[in-house]
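Subject: design request, 300 residues
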């Protein structure tokens, strides 16, 4: 049986970077107008400790509470209020996605997407290092379908197409009004590994070259000849946010688990790992040429 303490612990046991961003924004608003946590608590008919947890991102926030605090702090710009509500919604969805993933293993693949997409949607920049796969933001529908079939995680066509549709929606961030900045370093093996057949791979590689021409997309290939390096142990994504006060989040995906790193001390090494891989990689121009050469060398 789930107790109140169980629910409280579950709410604080997962990554809360979105919650911290929301809480930090509200904290700055409160301090700007010279109010104390007790004033906020009174406006919400809540305790001061509860407000402290909200401002630290430890608990999910309800829309009425956000609107009440904005009113108290004199924030009447609806665009600002809607921005806060959007962050709160993403944070709530991400917390729910974690529970969904734990209790319904049949939907693991889609749940992992929900876990990551909430952060990606709020991000300003993604740095990704990939050893064996083309980054998800660059994958073609047929490449995605081939991965779903090979992994065996999804067996029916409807589930596979849901994954494809989610991937398309993620990729829309590359060309929308606030384009996501992506710096991808891809090991040469990921480009030579035939996924779905040669025709699928040729289309995928051509897509990669096209996307690399976008001003917000930076693609580098780490060639085999670069030799050993510190990032050979696994792929990872570094998610960065527009708010300078928000910590970067590192998403480390292994064959059996997903790990989130949101601690400055633990996250910093991944910055170094990525920068070393980028230094060893080919320039964007040379990378595009290598990708094109690999595509042309694919057998019919």
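Subject: RE: design request

Done. Sequence follows.
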């Amino acid at each position: 049986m789930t107790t109140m303490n169980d629910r409280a612990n579950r709410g604080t046991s997962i990554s809360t970077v979105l919650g911290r961003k929301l809480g930090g924004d509200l904290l700055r608003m409160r301090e700007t107008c010279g109010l104390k946590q007790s004033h906020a608590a009174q406006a919400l008919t809540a305790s001061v400790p509860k407000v402290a947890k909200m401002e630290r991102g430890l608990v999910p926030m309800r829309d009425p509470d956000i609107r009440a605090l904005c009113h108290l702090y004199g924030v009447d710009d609806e665009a600002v209020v809607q921005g806060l509500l959007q962050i709160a919604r993403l944070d709530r969805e991400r917390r729910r996605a974690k529970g969904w993933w734990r209790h319904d293993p049949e939907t693991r693949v889609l749940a992992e997407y929900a876990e990551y997409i909430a952060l990606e949607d709020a991000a300003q920049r993604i740095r990704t290092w990939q050893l064996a796969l083309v980054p998800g933001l660059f994958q073609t529908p047929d490449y995605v379908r081939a991965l779903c079939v090979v992994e065996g995680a999804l067996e029916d066509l409807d589930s596979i197409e849901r994954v494809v549709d989610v991937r398309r929606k993620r990729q829309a961030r590359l060309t929308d009004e606030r384009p996501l900045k992506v710096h991808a370093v891809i090991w040469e093996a990921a480009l030579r590994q035939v996924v779905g057949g040669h025709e699928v791979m040729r289309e995928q590689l051509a897509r990669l070259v096209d996307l690399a021409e976008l001003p917000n997309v930076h693609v580098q290939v780490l060639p085999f000849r670069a030799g050993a390096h510190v990032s050979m142990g696994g792929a990872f994504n570094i998610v960065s946010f527009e708010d300078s006060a928000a910590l970067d989040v590192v998403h480390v995906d292994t064959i059996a688990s997903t790990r989130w790193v949101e601690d400055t001390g633990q996250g910093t090494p991944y910055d170094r790992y990525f920068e070393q891989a980028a230094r060893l990689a080919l320039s964007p121009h040379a990378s595009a040429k290598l990708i094109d050469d690999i595509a042309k060398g694919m057998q019919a």
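DSSP finds 13 helices and six strands in the chain.
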